[in-house]
Amino acid sequence: MAKLGLQQKLAILSDAAKYDASCASSGTSRRTSRDGTGLGSTTGSGICHAYAPDGRCISLLKILMTNFCIYDCAYCINRVSSNVERARFTPEEVVHLTLEFYRRNYIEGLFLSSGIIRSPDATMADMVRIAQILRQTHNFRGYIHLKTIPDADPLLIEQAGLFADRISINVELPTDAAVKSFAPEKSPDGIRRAMADVRLRKEASQDRSHTGKRPPKFAPAGQSTQMIIGADNSTDATILGQSTRLYSSYQLKRVYYSAFSPIPDATAKLPLIRPPLEREHRLYQADWLLRFYGFGVDEITAGRPDGNLDLAIDPKLAWALANRHHFPLEVNRASREMLLRVPGFGTKTVQRILTTRRHRSLRYDDLLRMGALMGKARAFVTLTDWSPRALTDSADLRARFAPPPEQLSLF
User: Among 7, 177, 377, 383, which residue's CB has the most CB atoms within a 10 Å radius?
Assistant: First the structure.
């Protein structure tokens, strides 16, 4: 096999990293300046965009250390039986790329994952070495996210947490049965043990010693995980129930849902249960409702008998339409818990409502200025100058929100 140059490796391994869902810039137009016009590119090798809690967009160098892998997970494009072009960075090459991209102000950090080469320990040791060289040799202070390997020595994962801002361990699939079926070389119990170890080390790093000195920081941005959805027949209720358990058990910062699409390879004969990208989007919305809006899994998934989310409308709107007896809601008197359940009201809008109504009654225009999406909310609320009258109970209310059928063209 011909020796690949650094640019060729970057093209292969940045493209292979797009299946890691822990940071991504998806949904934008494909624009590039490679034709000699303009400046910049939305599809440049290795650059992805993550978003901080305060809304800042953070550019990351997102690559695999290698897409060689000794495992044969049926859903993975980089599995050992897959016929894809392979490449491998040395630790020194990853360090070089990270520093050069950073010096040119292309990135603010590194997102590093990898296939498994030789053994989990050997792979994890190389990833830790990369982070260690960046931190200790080059005094790199940018963001580092490492995708760790649950089968690796716990000491290696502990070292990873000392150098990385965030570490993640993938649960792979929604159920143990699915993991055993599609990734038999991986152990659900081993994955959970590794995630529990990370939580314990994270908590221990926050405790002061008897002298009052804090131990070294461990993964200060916490841990996250990724779950592939659509590769097995798990319902959305099963997926969200598993996510709820993961959040509570391991204090995760985020569960990322990665839509499975069949790989054009004769060895990957997995079912495509529901449209993958629409389903992924609705699961993220439902996940947000579970974490910040006080909803339960049973409430969100009760609208359909099959335990799946409605793909045509968002989960909060679907709940409101199925529970019209709670509406219309008097905005000037309703509790915070019920205001959070109004379609079109976000957490910031609700807080502004609660703050303002202490001093005066709210009107329709006030909600518009607060950022409420009144196109959705108007059917579910009453105000000093607004009443939906019969709109809340109208038979065609759902049709007002669901997108109309679209005839697709073949050309």
Answer: 377
pTM above 0.70, yes or no: yes
**164-188: burial string, b at 16+ Cβ within 10 Å, e else:** bbbbbbbbbbbbeebbeebbeebbb
Q: Which listed CATH number (1.25.40, 3.30.70, 2.60.40, 3.30.750) goes with 172-184+219-311?
A: 3.30.750
Dihedral (CA of 184, 189, 194, 198) sign: positive
| Class in CATH terms, 1-20+44-168 | alpha beta
pLDDT digit string (tens) for the chain, length 411 residues:
568 899 889 888 988 887 776 554 333 345 454 555 543 444 445 667 666 555 667 788 999 999 999 999 998 989 999 889 999 999 999 999 999 999 988 888 999 999 999 999 999 999 999 999 999 999 998 899 999 999 999 999 999 999 999 999 999 999 999 999 999 999 999 999 999 999 999 998 887 766 667 778 999 999 999 999 998 999 999 999 999 999 999 999 999 999 886 655 544 455 555 668 899 999 999 999 999 999 999 999 998 999 999 999 999 999 999 999 999 999 999 999 999 999 999 999 999 999 999 999 999 999 999 999 999 999 999 999 999 999 999 989 999 888 666 665 655
Residues 6+ apart with CB under 8 A from 269: none
SS3 category, 107: coil
Cβ-based neighbours of 53, under 8 Å, separated by 6 or more: none
> Start-end ranges of CATH 3.20.20.70 in the chain?
1-20+44-168
- Residue 167 pairs with which residues in a beta bridge? 146, 223
What the block records as the tokens of 189 is: 């119990």
**Crossing angle for the helix pair 91-103 and 120-132, nearest 10 degrees?**
30
Residue reference for tokens 């199925």:
322
